[in-house]
Amino acid sequence: MKVSADVRAMIERRKKGHTLAAPFYASEEVHALDMDAIFRRHWIQVAVEPDVPEAGDYMTVELGNDSILIVRDDDMQIRAFHNVCRHRGARLCSSEKGSLGNIVCPYHSWTYNLNGDLMFAEHMGEQFDKCKHSLKRVHLENLAGLIFICLAETPPADFAVLRASMEPYLLPHGLADCKVAAAIDIIEKGNWKLTMENNRECYHCVANHPELTISLYEYGFGYQRSADNEEAMAAFDKTVEERTKQWEAMNLPSKEIDRLADLVSGFRTQRLPLDRSGESQTMDAKVASKKLLGGFQQADLGGLSFWTQPNSWHHFMSDHIVSFSVIPLSAGETLVRTKWLVHKDAKEGIDYNVDNLTAVWRATNDQDRALVEFSQLGVTSSAYEPGPYSPFTEGLVEKFCEWYIGRLDDYANTPDEASVNTHGEKVVSFKR
Question: Which residues are in the Rieske domain (predicted)?
Answer without folding.
Answer: 43-149
